Amino acid sequence: MTLLKIIIGSYALLMIIASSQSLIKDHDTDKMFHFINLIISIALIVSLVIVPKTYLVVPVAFVLVGYQILAIYRGVSLHSFHWQHHVVRLILTVALILTLVYI
């Protein structure tokens, strides 16, 4: 379980870094997307630290699905929707959630 928390926490930390960099840049017009992504990432890290192991699946699953929805929104809004990328993200998200359920 600790390794899985580290993997998910690393993912959230990388998303925080990417969102923060995008919020700082002036040429990106979709600041709200990056702000929501930043909030979701912080919520994921807080969940990993605070929520007990038995209840961890619910907030982590909710946040990972939130990442999926934001990624699809971003792809559609920029007219650069790459379905292969989203299929891989979906597979990884389902794998992480199922791993959390069965551990």
Low-confidence segments, ≥5 residues, pLDDT <50? none
* Number of domains as seen in the coordinates: 1
Shape: globular
> What oligomeric arrangement do these chains adopt?
single chain
Mean pLDDT, to the nearest integer, reads 87
* N-to-C series of helices and strands: HHHH
Number of strands: 0
**Largest sheet properties:** none
**What gyration radius follows from the Cα positions, in whole Å?**
14 Å
By secondary-structure content and strand pairing, the structural class works out as: mainly alpha
Euclidean distance between termini CA atoms: 7 Å
Beta content: under 5%
Helix content: over 70%
Query: How many DSSP H or I helices?
Result: 4
Could you list some keywords that capture this structure?
103 residues; mainly alpha; 4 helices; 0% strand
Description:
The chain is mainly alpha-helical and 103 residues long. It has one domain (2-102). The protein is built from 4 helices and no strands. The protein starts with a helix and ends with a helix.
